[in-house]
Design goal:
heterodimer, A: mainly beta, 4-stranded mixed β-sheet, 31% strand, elongated, B: alpha+beta, 3-stranded antiparallel β-sheet, 14 strands
Chain lengths: 72, 324
C-alpha cells in the first residue's frame, strides 16, 4: 500500500502504486510562527505523489525545517 | 480565553475559544484574507501572488500548538485542559469566485492527496488523537469567508461522534467478525434504492437512517480505515464520486448547494481500529428548495433527529439529477 511521505525526506520512493498526479509540497512559516504549506500540482511531471520541497519560501516567508510540526 | 472543559454529564470535552469572536466576518472580496497577496494590494494570509493549493494554521484557532494555560481553574468533577491541538485552513484554489464542485477532477484528486498528507502529518503529532477534515460551505452553515476552503481540526481527544461510530462498529465486528460499514455497503448495493452514484472504487448513498434530508455518505468499497490507506486509483475514484455528489447537489435546485462535508476516519492515538471504515458524510441544510432544516427541540434538546424526507425518495431524486 502506497502511503504519502511525511515531510522529512526529499522525494517519495517509487513503488508499485503509481499515482496519476505529481504534487510538490513546500513548507514555510509565517512571521508569527504559523506554518503555511504550498501544494502545487505539477502538470506534465512524472507522477510521484507528494514530493517534499524544503528549500524554503519566498521573500516574505522564512524557510522552515523539513517538518515544522516535529518540534517536540 | 481558551481551554477544554470536561462535561461529566455527557462525558465530553467542550472547547472554549473566545478569541474566535474577533475573526474576520464576510469581508468584501478585495479584502479576502484567503486570496493570494496581489502586487500593491493588502497582505493576505498567503504572501505569494498566486498559489495552487495552500494550508496554513488558522489565525483564530479553537486548538493551538502552544496553548495558554486555562483561564479558569478546574475541579475533580470538571477538570480543564489546555486547548492543545492544531486548526488548519485548506485553500482549494487562489480563485475567489468558484467552488470545489466546479474544479477540474485533477484538482479534486490533488486535494485528496493534500488531505492524506495532512492526516499523516497531524496524526503523527503525539498530542493529536483524532484528525477531522471538513468543509463548511455556504452562509446557511455559518461560513464567514466565501473563498473556497476547508478546515482540519487535530483534536487531543477522540470527539463524541467518532467515539459512537467506533463503539458501534467495534461491537458489530466482535459479534459478527465483519466490518459494519462493509456490510452496510453490501446490503445497500444489493437493495439499490438508496444508491446515488458509484464507480469501481467508491459508492455514494443516502443512508437508511439518514438524519438530514439529502444526507449522503461516500464510502470506499474496499475496507480502508483512513484516507492514507487509499491507493492512487482509489484516491482518483474518491475524487470522482465526491465531485459527482457535489454537482448533483448544485443541479438539484440549480444553485450552489450549501453543505457540511465531514470526513470520518480512524483515530490517530496509536490504537488499532480494524473494525472502522473510512468515509465522507455530506449534510446539506435544506429540506426543500426554500426551506431550511433547523436543529430544533428534538434534535438539539433530545438528540433525536426528525427527518422530513424519505431516504429512498431523496436518493432517487439525487440519482436522477445529472452531475453536469
Amino acid at each position: 500500500m502506497f502511503r504519502p511521505l511525511r515531510a522529512e525526506a526529499g522525494t517519495v520512493p517509487r513503488g508499485t502504486e503509481v499515482p496519476s498526479v505529481a504534487i510538490r509540497k513546500t513548507v514555510t512559516r509565517k512571521e508569527d510562527g504559523r506554518h503555511l504549506i504550498y501544494y502545487t500540482l505539477e502538470e506534465g511531471a512524472e507522477p510521484d505523489g507528494v514530493v517534499v520541497d524544503d528549500s524554503g519560501g519566498d521573500h516574505s516567508e522564512r524557510a522552515a525545517s523539513a517538518d515544522p510540526e516535529r518540534e517536540r | 480565553m481558551s481551554e477544554l472543559r470536561w462535561n461529566p454529564v455527557l462525558r465530553e470535552w467542550v472547547v472554549t475559544a473566545t478569541q474566535r469572536q474577533e475573526r474576520t466576518f464576510f469581508p468584501p472580496p478585495e479584502y479576502c484574507p484567503l486570496c493570494p497577496t496581489r502586487p500593491g494590494a493588502f497582505p493576505t494570509e498567503v504572501p505569494r501572488p498566486d498559489y495552487d493549493m495552500a494550508v496554513f494554521e488558522n489565525r483564530f484557532p479553537s486548538l493551538r500548538r502552544n496553548p495558554p494555560e486555562p483561564g479558569v481553574a478546574g475541579s475533580e468533577l470538571c477538570p480543564v485542559r489546555p486547548s492543545e491541538g492544531v486548526c488548519e485552513v485548506v485553500l482549494y484554489t487562489s480563485e475567489h469566485n468558484t467552488e470545489l464542485a466546479a474544479m477540474p477532477i485533477r484538482k479534486i484528486e490533488q486535494l485528496v492527496w493534500v488531505w492524506a498528507d495532512r492526516f499523516a502529518d497531524l496524526g503523527a503529532r503525539p498530542e493529536v488523537e483524532y484528525v477531522f477534515i471538513f468543509e463548511n460551505k455556504g452562509k446557511e452553515i455559518g461560513v464567514t469567508l466565501s473563498h473556497p476552503h476547508g478546515q482540519i481540526y487535530a483534536y487531543p481527544f477522540v470527539p463524541p461522534t467518532a467515539q459512537r461510530e467506533l463503539a458501534g462498529s467495534r461491537d458489530h465486528f466482535e459479534r459478527h467478525r465483519e466490518c459494519l460499514f462493509c456490510r452496510i455497503l453490501r446490503e445497500e448495493r444489493a437493495d439499490g434504492r438508496r444508491i446515488v452514484a458509484e464507480n469501481d472504487g467508491c459508492t455514494a448513498l443516502v443512508p437508511f437512517f439518514a438524519r438530514y434530508p439529502y444526507e449522503v455518505h461516500v464510502l470506499p468499497r474496499a475496507h480502508r480505515e483512513a484516507i492514507t490507506d487509499l491507493d492512487a486509483s482509489e484516491r482518483r475514484m474518491l475524487a470522482e464520486v465526491l465531485q459527482t455528489v457535489m454537482l448533483k447537489y448544485n443541479n438539484l435546485w440549480n444553485r450552489s448547494m450549501p453543505y457540511i462535508m465531514a470526513m470520518h476516519q480512524r483515530p490517530t492515538d496509536g490504537d488499532r481500529y480494524p473494525h472502522y471504515h473510512y468515509h465522507v458524510e455530506f449534510y446539506p441544510p435544506y429540506r426543500t428548495e426554500d426551506k431550511l432544516k433547523y436543529l430544533a427541540g428534538s434534535e438539539a434538546g433530545a438528540g433525536a433527529f426528525i427527518n422530513d424526507t424519505l431516504p429512498e425518495e431523496t436518493a432517487r431524486t439525487l440519482r436522477e439529477t445529472e452531475p453536469r
